[in-house]
Amino acid sequence: MALIVQKYGGTSVGSAERIRNVARRVAKWRAAGHDLVVVPSAMAGETNRLIGLAKEIQPQPDPRELDVVAATGEQVTIGLLSMALLELGLKAKSYSGWQVKISTDSAFTKARITTIEDTAIRRDLAAGTVVVVAGFQGVDQAGNITTLGRGGSDTSAVALAAALKASECQIFTDVDGVYTTDPRIVPEARRLRTVTFEEMLEMAGAGSKVLQIRSVEFAGKYRVPTRVLSSLTDPMMPVAEEAQAGTLITFEEDPIMAMEKAVISGVAFNRDEAKITVHDVPDRPGIAYAILGPIADASIDVDVIVQNVGHDGMTDMTFTVHRNDYAKAMKILKTQVQPHIKCRDISGDERIAKVSIVGMGMRSHAGIAAQMFRTLAEEGINIQMISTSEIKITVVIEEKYTELAVRVLHKAFELEQA
Ligand code: ASP
Ligand code: MG
């Protein structure tokens, strides 16, 4: 008998019938003797609809009020799911974020969880009740409703699992695990049976949308065994089988698995970025700060950064930002930065994509970068920027080559082979 936290994504609770299926699945785990905390997202499309409504009223919605609106999607599903469980004869009870309570900071629309009160949940679990907690939402110190950023119910679930020291956090979604790449682009993409937490973190950062990156950070920090699996399978699939399904995020690489595993675990990509170059800036101390400081002050995240070797006392600096922040970043550079640093020009390109290969095996294998660059060269794909970590190599390329690059890299690193 163990405590399990299960999260169900928007598709999984997208209709009354699907909610009933979730209830059946939960009841099955309960019947196997486990304690269950269940965290649903809002019904598919609902959060988009709510944000759209807010924008009809106020084009730039007030962040506090936007969270009041956006958090309602999950309030609907916790109630409906609890009812479905009650209908099956189980004891069930729903909690909003503030009822639990899940405390966060006050960064509306992207709040971070600070603490979770577990008293009420533990009391209910001890009484044999299935506890249904709203994902995506919390409450700040002043009592304001907050939300955790898009995809945030993954983080709610992993954080609850950490706080309750659950034996596993199961993320049920509309895919049956983490794949070597997006199967819509590469039909031969394979489901990974395990992936290390470090790889998952890099994949999430590189554009894989399976888990919200903060949930992976939580899983890593508190060592929460987390499994991604499908909610679209037969809900009555035997528990023993389901316990082995999907992709398990691990903390140490199993040495035997590691030997069998390919050097690269996955190819991730991201088309949501834009590139900005500041040309011919004086090559002196403080210049990177002069350029990127004002960007950071505007809460714009900067990703790949490249500064060239200086020539004649001058250098170029190029970096990427999220495409949504592109116009804002350009404006800051032109109005706040250019007048002070006297650069020759500022140029930008929104038609870029980031393609990354990720794998623990990179640490012990030489020549992976060269193989990646050769593969892209053979297709005539120009690499505009390169950045690396210990287990990831990222290139920035022209957006129109994204799918081609992903396909050829997947093949070059033999990811289709089990
Ligand atoms: N409902 C929220 C969203 O659509 C949170 C989530 O689904 O994880 O972003
Ligand atoms: Mg999601």
Question: Topology of this protein?
Answer:
Elements (H helix, E strand, L loop, with lengths): L2 E6 L7 H16 L3 E6 L5 H12 L5 H8 L1 H16 L4 E4 L1 H4 L1 E3 L8 E4 L2 H8 L3 E4 L3 E3 L5 E3 L5 H11 L4 E6 L20 E3 H9 L7 H9 L4 E5 L8 H4 L4 E4 L4 H6 L5 E5 L2 E10 L4 H11 L4 E6 L6 E9 L3 H16 L3 E5 L2 E7 L9 H11 L6 E5 L2 E7 L3 H11 L6
Parallel strand pairs: 1-2, 1-9, 2-6, 3-6, 9-11, 10-12
Antiparallel strand pairs: 4-5, 7-8, 11-12, 13-18, 14-16, 14-17, 15-16, 18-20, 19-20
Helix pairs in contact: 1-4, 7-9, 8-9, 12-13, 14-15
Bound molecules: aspartic acid and magnesium ion.
Model description:
- By secondary structure, the chain is α/β, with parallel strands linked by helices.
- The protein has two domains: 3-175 and 210-258, 3-Layer(aba) Sandwich (Carbamate kinase); 266-412, VC0802-like, CATH 3.30.2130.
- It contains 15 helices and 20 strands.
- The strands form five sheets. Strands 3-6-2-1-9-11-12-10 form an eight-stranded mixed sheet, with helices on both faces.
- The longest helix is centred in the N-terminal third of the chain and has 16 residues, at 16-31.
- It is globular.
- The chain starts with a strand and ends in a 6-residue tail after the last helix.
